[in-house]
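Handout, page 2. Input:
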Amino acid sequence: MDCRLEVVGVPVSDIDRAKAFYVQVGFVADHDQRVDETLRFVQLTPVGSGCSIVLGVTPEMEPGSLHGLIVVVDDIEAARADLVVRQIEVSEVDDQPWGRFVYFSDPDGNSWMVQQLPTSA
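Output:
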C-alpha cells in the first residue's frame, strides 16, 4: 500500500491570527473556505512541501498542543535569516550530530523545528 502524509491539523485559538502568522513565515495560503457557521477550512503549505497544514479550532485538540513539527531545509543559516527578515522569533542554530536546527512557535505555542540534515561523511 502506498500512502502519503499530505495534511496535518494544527490546533489554534484564532484562525485569522494563525493564518496571518503562517503566511508571514512563508507558507502559501491554498484554501480558506467557510463550510458552515462552525467550521472553516484553512489550508497552508510550506513552499516546496508535499504536506500542508490545516488550521482549526476544535474541542479535540487544545490550541498550542502540537509540538515538534519538523520542516527540512538545505541551508539552515539561510532559513534562519529568512525567518528573521520575516520578523519571526527564531532560536539560534542548534548543532546536533543528527542535524542542525532552529526553533520557532506560532502565536498559540505550537512548536516547529527547522532541520538541516547532516551531510554524509
